[in-house]
Each structure stands twice: as structure tokens, then as C-alpha cells.
Q: What sequence folds into this?
């Protein structure tokens, strides 16, 4: 199980260290998303070189392809994809609620059909735990319920209550697995060859997810109930699902302080640099988002002066790097003109290089964030960062 | 201009060294194909790590996208793609003849329409040279004519004659450029900023292409005429265009000996390991082919025991590397099951890893080829290599 140490504060912003059996994670941390047992276009040594200390895997996607049974028999997700550092897996709930057309919700769980072969599946608190146990992730997430949007206050309250009941069932399933794992060294000889190694199960932590939409009192109710049950960390879910950024920022601002000070706080699926810096300021520690990798594939690049879209004709013969102030391998070696050409021709090498750059930007931003908090200057850093970030691309001639 | 030193012989097979201003190339050599200023899915440091001493660029594709003018203004192809080692560019003729639907051949050249924007283009001996000079490749190829297949003997004879006339025009255009480059240091101050650097032009070599189909006497006629004109190296063209492998092997066997002993001999667009080993045995030195990179993208992998298709269901849970006898980064770190999953899900990371493996296989095979020739044991090496290669995948249970 993980341990968390808070080392510095700067206002509400916190810097700390999560210790797991697979290594340490300095917080605040950004987790690149490795949906299908790979961060798209990257390989593990490159992610390590970029300074990524933890990545995220998607339970829903891995359950459907290649299936958690196969991954377990191949030694678990870390060995399968050859990533030695920590992995956090989500519960699969968000994907079922947002991607499935034929989804049916009951107290038992969510029934849906596999988009791969049409077969019926049930994602329940117990199966979400079983899948994540088979994957062998370091941090598992409870199955939560996301009310279909737009939702009435009553419907949001209902999802808060169900999320708590499901979190309780997740915790039970987790504790039972820990019990079995704790007992199993004694019966190791009788374990089937493809069983989950007990040491892997014993290393797993479980986070709960606070729901409640944009209603402060429902967020407080959700957080209170989950904290009462007790988990290794807490996440804010159901955000960045279409609400205006200001509303999201206000919810995070209000909800962060509801979470225990001495445990990791994770803001799920968020977001743009402004969203992350605002959430760090509110006291959040962990972040994940597909946008840096997804935007890279479309030629949209993060720079210290804001977004740069390589599709624009003005970069056709531009010999400059994506961001003259960036220290990444791509900016050291390739011009906008070359990268635009690769993107225009849909060359895989282009996706690879642009993904590298965007992940460097995010991971480097988080490194600067941690440095600023340690120096007690986070507010100043945020102001300077955003002032430069909002400048836009300079129009200096080549 | 390049120089070539023959260092060892083993039967007709030769080992040697091509020296260029951008580094040495040990022969026999395989040149990965970098069609659009990138070897698909690879980046230059990875190619260097794989031991690639020279790559190929496609004049036709680069002329259409992004255009040789842009590449020249960005500092030439090497700088554009950040590849410091030698580059060979083809003439573009093969692509125009094989890819263009609205192609019109005259003595002047080949008129065709750009598939990108429909604009009319003319590929002539002079424009083929001008494009390759703008790209700044280390080895340029003469524009040759490939008779539409199937071709009568008369039609092949016609293409031989035109290929000679075009080669003469290519040589003239090359010599004129060298003259201008030789003179230009004196007038450097008056050169436009985007001119081709004289030192780059002076470093370029020019190879001619022997045509003649499968007719031994026409091949001899073509080779004789081109050698009489005099070039820095000679290639066999118009092979592996649909004829049976035995016919191709016989043509190479007969034609290799027609080429000067003290100059590089290049077999264009070939091929499978058997084709390459057979051509090395006949005395050929240089090879290029898209198949290792193209097959990788479709999950077809080269191994010491022949091809392995990852699409096959039997590899679904196979924990073994692609080739247990392979020393590449992919075989050291990833299972067939994982790579099959990535290929099945069309993950870019899969293309990247499988391309790496197939290029390692080819480049490592050539390294072994050179070692065997140096030891005077090429025939023995070839026999052993092909005996193992024809075994097929072993069916040993996991």
C-alpha cells in the first residue's frame, strides 16, 4: 500500500511524495494516459526519460482488449507493457457511462455490450475490483456513478448515494482480496500458475471518487461519506464533462479542502494547463488527461506562449523549433516546417515527435510547479506562467 | 564525391567501404527507405543505433510533398530531417512510371499530374538532377525509363536506348552543377541566401541505372553504354517488378559481372532476404527495399526462422519474444502477446516497435553478411542462414 508525505506548502498548494512498492511519485504529478497498455506512440524508456513517474491505464479498454485475464496470465500490466513504475487504473465507469450506447444501470452495476464483439458485460463494484486486481495496478479506483448530464439535483444526489454504496462494496472486495493474499503465501504450492501474485495484490491501494456535480453541499456529503468509509486516497470525479471552466474551478476550489490533508487528492481527467494550475492552487495533487497526447496527434502543440497549431500555413517554411524556450529533444532537433510536413503527410514519426513534445511540456510544467511550491512561490509562478502562456505565438519574422 | 574500396572477396561476393563526406558505408549494405523525409515510425538516433549507415529518400514523393524548394531553403534534406549520415535519392522515375495514372512519356521526359493538387509536372533528366541537387543527397540516381510491363523485346531495347540518352543528359546536368559549384566560392558574396551550398553540390555522386529487362544481351548493351559514359556507381533497375524470383536471380547473376569491379553496384528495390543473399553472392553491394518497414506495419515480422505473422491467433497469449534468437530492443523487452495486442488495436507504438525489429533483422543480416565475406565464408553463411530461415516458426509449446 502507498504512503503519502506532505513536504511543502505554498498557500493551499502542496508538494509531497507518494511512496509505492514500484517507486516514488513526487506530487503534484501529471499521469500520461496509457489507455490500451501503451501511452500512444511512446515506449516506456522514453516516458522514463521524460520524467514520468506514474501512468494511467484504462480498465474499460483493457477489459475489452486484450482482456484482464490475458494480461494477468502474461504477468500483469507492468510486465505486459514493460513499464516498471507505478500505474493507476481507473474503474472503467466513466467510459461505460460516456462511451456505451446500450448501457443499463442497476444497483448491481452497469450492463453494456462490448464494442469489440457485442458480448454482454457487467461492470459492478466487484468486477471493477477484480479487473484491476488482475491488471495489478498500484492504485485502483472505486466504481462510481456519473449521472447522465444534464442532471437534476435529485439525480445528482442519487448518484452520490449510489457512489457511496458502490465504494463500500469496492472496499469490501479489496479487503477480501488482501485477506486472501495475506493468507496465500502459506498455500502458495496449491495456487494455480496464473493466479495473481500475492505480493502484487498486497501492494495495491484503493482510492474513492467524490461525486456531487457542481453542488457544494452534495460534494461535501459525498466526501464525508467516503472519508468515513476510509480509503488510501480520494479523487474528484464528474468534472470537465462539459460544464464551463469557471464552474469546474469553483467546484474544485470548494471540494479540495473537503479531502483529508494527509492523503493524495486526485482530480480525474483534468485538463488544460490553466485547469491544472488552478487545481494545484486549491490543493490537488494528481492529474491525468488525454489532451496532450490527443492534441499532439492533431498537430496542436503546447508552448510556453500558448497553443501552436502546425496546420496553419504560416509554419510551412518556419525553421524555428515548436517552442524556442523548450528544452525537449524535439525542439532541439526539428523545425516547425519539418514537423508540419510530417503531420500533413500523416507520418507516424510526426505523431511520435509531437506526442513527445506535448508530454515534455506537461511533465516539465509539473516539475516547475513542484519547484515553485517548495520555494513557497506558487502564486507568483502561476501568475508568470499564465501571463506568458496567454501571449500567443510571437509574430517575429523568421 | 564518393570513393569505393574493395576489402574482401568470398567467391563473387564482395565486402568494401564507400567513403563520403558524411561518413563511411560498409558494404554490402541495406538502406532503409525514408520516402517522405522519414523512415516511417523511426527517428534518426534510433536508426543510427540500429547501425544504419545510409538511408534512401524518394525524389518523386519529396518533390510533391513538401517540395525540393522548401527542403533546400530549410538547409537540404539532411538538415531538414536531422539525419547526419549519407542519403541516396532515387530519380523519381520508378514512382512516376508505377504510380501515375496520367503519365505521358516523350524524349524530353515524363509528364504527369501531382496526386496532391493535380498540377502538371515534368520529370526530365534535367529536372530529376535539379530536384536531387536541391535535396542535397550524397548519391543521386540518373532518370531511367522503365518500359511498361509486359514489354516486347523491342520495347525493352527502346527503353535501354532512352535510358542511355537520359543518363548522358543527367551527367551533363551534374557536371554543369559541379562547374558552377566549383566556381561559386569566388562569387559567394553574390549568391542568393537560399542557393544550394557549393560544398554540398561538390559532395554529390551520380549513379547510372542499367535496364534491359530479363534479356542478357540488352542488359549487357545497357551496362556497356553507361560504363562508356562513366558514372560514380551503377545500379540494376527494372527488377522485382513482377517477374518470377528465379528470373530475377538469373538476371542479377548475369548482370552483376557486367558492372565495374572497382565501383559500387546497387540492386534497386530488392528485396527479401533470399533475394539479397543471392545478389550478394553475385557481387552486388547496395540494396534498398520498403518491405521490412511495410511488412512491420501489417504485423509481418522477419525472424531467423522465417516470417512470423502476428495476426495469427496462436500468438494471442504467447509470452515469447518475436524471435528468441534476436538481440534487438524489442525482442529483449516485449512478448508476442503484447505486440499482437498493439497491432490488433492499431496502436502507433506497435508500428514503432515492429518496424524497429524488422530493420534490426535486415541490418543485422547485412552485418553478418559482411563478417562472412571478410572470413571468406559467404557461401557457407548463406547456406546456413537459409536453412534456418526456411524452418518456419517452431511449434514448441509455451
A:
Amino acid at each position: 500500500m502507498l504512503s503519502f508525505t506532505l513536504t511543502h506548502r505554498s498557500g493551499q498548494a502542496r508538494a509531497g511524495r507518494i511512496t509505492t512498492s514500484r517507486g516514488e511519485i513526487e506530487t503534484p504529478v501529471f499521469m500520461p494516459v496509457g489507455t490500451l497498455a501503451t501511452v500512444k506512440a511512446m515506449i516506456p524508456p522514453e516516458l522514463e526519460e521524460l520524467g514520468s513517474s506514474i501512468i494511467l491505464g484504462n480498465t474499460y479498454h483493457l477489459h475489452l482488449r486484450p482482456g484482464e485475464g490475458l494480461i494477468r496470465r502474461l504477468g500483469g500490466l507492468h510486465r505486459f507493457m514493460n513499464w516498471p513504475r507505478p500505474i493507476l487504473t481507473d474503474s472503467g465507469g466513466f467510459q461505460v457511462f460516456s462511451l456505451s450506447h446500450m448501457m443499463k444501470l442497476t444497483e448491481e452495476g452497469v450492463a453494456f455490450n462490448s464494442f469489440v464483439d457485442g458480448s454482454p458485460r457487467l461492470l459492478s463494484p466487484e468486477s471493477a475490483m477484480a479487473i484491476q486486481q488482475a491488471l495489478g495496478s498500484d492504485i485502483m479506483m472505486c466504481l462510481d456513478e456519473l449521472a447522465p448530464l444534464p442532471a437534476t439535483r435529485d439525480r445528482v444526489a442519487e448518484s452520490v448515494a449510489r457512489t457511496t454504496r458502490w465504494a463500500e462494496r469496492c472496499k469490501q472486495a479489496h479487503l477480501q482480496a488482501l485477506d486472501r493474499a495475506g493468507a496465500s503465501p502459506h498455500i502458495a504450492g496449491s495456487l494455480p500458475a496464473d493466479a495473481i501474485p500475492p505480493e502484487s495484490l498486497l501492494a495495491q491501494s484503493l482510492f474513492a471518487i467524490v461525486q456531487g456535480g457542481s453542488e457544494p453541499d452534495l460534494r461535501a456529503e459525498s466526501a464525508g461519506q467516503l472519508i468515513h468509509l476510509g480509503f488510501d486516497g480520494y479523487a474528484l470525479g464528474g468534472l470537465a464533462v462539459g460544464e464551463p471552466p469557471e464552474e469546474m474551478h469553483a467546484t474544485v476550489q470548494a471540494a479540495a479542502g473537503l479531502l483529508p490533508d494527509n492523503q493524495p487528492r486526485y482530480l480525474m481527467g483534468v485538463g488544460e494547463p490553466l485547469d491544472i494550475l488552478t487545481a494545484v492552487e486549491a490543493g490537488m495533487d494528481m492529474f491525468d488527461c488525454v489532451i496532450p497526447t490527443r492534441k499532439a496527434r492533431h498537430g496542436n502543440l503546447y508552448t510556453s506562449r500558448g497553443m501552436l497549431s502546425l496546420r496553419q500555413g504560416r509554419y510551412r517554411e518556419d525553421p524555428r523549433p515548436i517552442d524556442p524556450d523548450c528544452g525537449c529533444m524535439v525542439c532541439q532537433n526539428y523545425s516547425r516546417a519539418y514537423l508540419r510536413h510530417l503531420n500533413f503527410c500523416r507520418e507516424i514519426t510526426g505523431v511520435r515527435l509531437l506526442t513527445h513534445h506535448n508530454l515534455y511540456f506537461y511533465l516539465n510544467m509539473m516539475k516547475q510547479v513542484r519547484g515553485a511550491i517548495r520555494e513557497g512561490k506558487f502564486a507568483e509562478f502561476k501568475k508568470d506562467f499564465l501571463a506568458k502562456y496567454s501571449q500567443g505565438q510571437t509574430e517575429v519574422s523568421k
